[in-house]
Amino acid sequence: MAQSLHPAASHDLPAFITAPGETDVLMVVMAVFLLLAIVMFGLLFLRLHTLPERMAHKSKKIQFELVAVLGLIALFTHMHIFWIAGLLLALIDLPDFGGSLGRIATSTETIAGLKPGGAADALRPESTADEATSDEAAGAARETHATAREAAVLSKAPSAPPARKKELRHA
Length: 171
Fold this sequence. Notes:
The protein has 171 residues and is mostly helical. It has a domain at 25-91. The protein is 61% helix and 0% strand. The protein contains 7 helices and no strands. The mean pLDDT is 78.
């Protein structure tokens, strides 16, 4: 049975109009294009959203974790101020106090005669098996120390502070 066009229909139909029962090629192409456009937009959004984190990671900033957390908070709360704060932190170079403090700690351990990096091990008690005995000993030591301190305070007479030389005024 051959299908004929309706007498009122135009005989010159555009190429995107398909016959009944055939695949609509234009709809398939547009569905694939729309799917790719959504994926590309999502990738662009996430790439732009992680910009502060990538900047802080690339320049090896100390505040990298803070920038990453601010980015995640901004992503999940949709509050853009966190993203802006993360971007500003990624751009600012904070000083590294950890390196200087580590060198000070190592020097102090060396002066004290301890192995550098092992001061925490030297301060730990050897055994904690007899906690009750050690608590009693610590209590007795505290009482002895408090008694000695009270005796020292009572035996000392109040004295005047040592006199200091006056500085000359700078003009």
